[in-house]
Amino acid sequence: MEHERGFSLIEMLVVLGIMAAVLGIALPSFNSGTSPAQVESAATELASTLRATRAAAVAGGQPVDFSIDVARGSFAGDGALHRLTADEDMHVALYTTTGALSSATSGAIRFYPDGGSSGGGITVSSGARFFVVAVDWLSGAVSVRQRTEETGM
Question: 112 exposed, middle or buried (CB, 10 Å; 0-12, 13-18, 19+)?
Answer without folding.
Answer: middle
